[in-house]
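[Meeting: bench + compute handoff]

Bench side (C.D.) handed over the final construct sequence. Compute side (W.E.) agreed to return the predicted structure before the next meeting so the bench team could plan truncations. Sequence as handed over:
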Amino acid sequence: MRIRFGYVAMALDIIEGSPNKTVTVANLLKVPQEADRLNRLRRLVKKNLENQLRVLKYNKAHEIEVFRVTSKLIPLATHPATAGWDYLSEFHNELDEIGGYAKDNNMRLSAHPDHFVLLNSPKAEVISASLKDLEYHADLLDAMGLNDSAKLVLHVGGLYKDKEPALVRFKDNFKLLPAKIRNRIIIENDDRSYSAADVLKLCKELNAPMVLDVHHHYCCNNGEPLIDLLPDIFDTWQVMQPKLHFSSPKDAKNFRAHADCVNVDDLLNFLRIAKDCVNRDFDIMLEAKQKDRALHALMQQLKGIQGIKIVGQAAIEY
């Protein structure tokens, strides 16, 4: 198996490695003139896009081909305060350059809309806001010239006191999504409500890929061994290489929280399971607090371990 590793949103090991610069609505509205407010946002977007390209160039230098783009690339993009602002046209060249660089260097980009995106909410206004946010993400990836292989990670949402009706609402609303959004969505198990088995069943019904979060599986399950689920989870990807999320718990007391780095023994335990039941290439998004530093640290730990062959600065064969 060949496994590529990636990380999330920003690079900590370089200057100006954060494309997350933003402003609160309250502070933005303190600027009296609308034109001045937009100019402030333009400056933030320009810096974010510059930093995003810088991060991708850093990733290329370290042979990192898997990366999650921050949702904050365009600050307040879906807020009423920015209604009518055509940022996609204004920053067309910059977005196209970012996407072109990713494509030219075989980078797999994705995004993860925020926790308030809830397709299974019983409230119409929440669904409306969720659709607006999903459209923002899809339009951003479109503007980068990235095809449907650049995915949007989505959780099922809340239980709302009754799981089955909540799942039905998710399915109904998912089917109503515009194709440009629906074709990008991959669905992830969470750490409290919807187990890997729940999400696998849902993905099969919707013909959507499932992104397994290994840490979440150990937080939320009904006793299903991962070795029994993994082949079917990987099969939901069909023609694409599967991707999963991996992190270690912060500590026993804060088991759901992500640790700064990945415990190498946690990863090796998972790789043994994957080797036994799927034995195919896949990608791992590391969700560690130390981001790129955690990836570099993990690669150092993997050197010299029996059965591991280092095939790049961010990839192994097992």
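W.E. noted at the follow-up: The first helix runs from residue 25 to 29. C.D. will use this when planning the next construct.
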